[in-house]
């Protein structure tokens, strides 16, 4: 549901607050880097998958530190991914032998 505070913000402030330009720039860079692969299934599908990965928090996997540091959402996504991979260390004192934890 939309909050009244969100509706009170001008468009450009809302977009800046959510770092939309950062994600659009990254999406276009990823698109250009992978244009051969993308020609197989289309640009619309690429953008759909890119922004789904942003929502799921998987967009930070195998990315450089500057990208992870760029937005609060990226940092939180990294911490969630890190925790999912290494939470057994805190519980057991050593990493579990099960590779499915990461």
Describe the structure.
One of its GO terms (cellular component) is microtubule. Keywords: Cytoplasm, Cytoskeleton, Microtubule, Phosphoprotein. InterPro entries: CSTPP1. It is found in: Cytoplasm, Cytoskeleton, Microtubule organizing center, Centrosome, Centriolar satellite. The protein is 69% helix and 0% strand. By secondary structure, it is mainly alpha-helical.
**First-residue to last-residue Cα separation:** 33 Å
- Based on DSSP secondary structure assignment, what is the total number of beta strands? 0
Largest sheet descriptor: none
Please, what is the average pLDDT? 88
Tell me the number of structural domains.
2
Low-confidence stretches: none
Percent of residues in β-strands: under 5%
Quickly give the structural class: mainly alpha
**Oligomer status:** single chain
Tell me roughly what share of residues is in helical segments.
55-70%
Radius of gyration over all CA atoms, rounded: 17 Å
Number of helices: 7
Shape: flat
List the helices and strands in order: HHHHHHH
Main location: cytoplasm
InterPro entries: CSTPP1
Family: Belongs to the CSTPP1 family.
Subunit structure: Interacts with PCM1. Interacts with TTLL1, TPGS1, TPGS2 and LRRC49; the interactions link CSTPP1 to the complex TPGC. Binds to alpha-tubulin.
């Amino acid at each position: 549901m939309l909050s009244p505070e969100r509706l009170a913000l001008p468009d450009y402030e809302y977009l800046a607050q959510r770092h939309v330009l950062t994600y659009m720039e990254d999406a276009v860079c990823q698109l250009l880097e992978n244009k051969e692969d993308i020609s197989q299934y289309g640009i619309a599908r690429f953008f759909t998958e890119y922004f789904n990965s942003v929502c799921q928090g998987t967009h930070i996997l195998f990315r450089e530190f500057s990208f992870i540091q760029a937005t609060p959402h990226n940092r939180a996504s990294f911490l969630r991914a890190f925790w999912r991979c290494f939470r057994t260390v805190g519980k057991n004192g050593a990493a579990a032998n099960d590779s499915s934890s990461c």
